[in-house]
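TL;DR need structure tokens for one chain.
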Amino acid sequence: MNIKRYIPAQSLQQAYELNQKPGSRVLGGALWLRLSGAPISTAIDLSALGLNAIEETEEQFSIGAMSTLRQLETHPGLNAYTQGAAAKALSPIVGVQFRNLATTGGSVFGRFGFSDTLTLFLALDTQVELYHAGMVPLERFVQMKPDRDILSRLIVQKRPGAFVCLSTRNSRTDFPALTCALSRIDNEYRAVYGARPARAMVLRDTEGILKEGVTPDSARAFAQYAAEHVPTGSNTRSSAAYRAHLIKVLTQRGLLELGGNRHGD
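>> reply
TL;DR here they are.
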């Protein structure tokens, strides 16, 4: 990376003001940033702001933007709440060394189409805390145009539910061909699909296919509904048709797993 000036921010206000200038970039893990090739006039480091912790209360998780994917993967409370879905979603990402550097904030703020992290948190009751815009539901944040705000933390509400995360890769540690996260929160079903190859999107059961619960028939019917309503595209990792097939397979498989998990009921 070609960095002209490096500044360890002493406050979020300072970081926000520095980030308004053209050519400024906030450093997360800087793993994808270094591949962009674009020169950086001012690199803003948030490491001194105490944003690298995951705090748990009875009501929620507060996840600092500088916490690493490895911290998420191994956090006992988060994995207990998600019945291991957090670790299952994050453990296939490249390798432990990479996950020790990649940050939660960098993964979410980048809104990368291949982001397993984004797929996971969209299946939870998640909000992002932005310095300027305040609290924003993650589902709405994903649709917003990129700007120069600063993401400081994620807030995940602990609502009774069950969670499953699945993905398909052509080879171990590769980018996913498709990511899929399924949840049932307060008896509302939610399906999230990423690496379509566009950024992750949420699909809800607006047709009431699962209103009587998960059965082999209802899981099959919702999987078909998802395959017909989730747009897919082609790239070097998969064709649009194969991704549509994966949506059907992973949705049915995940729903059957979800139906056997009655945590929180």
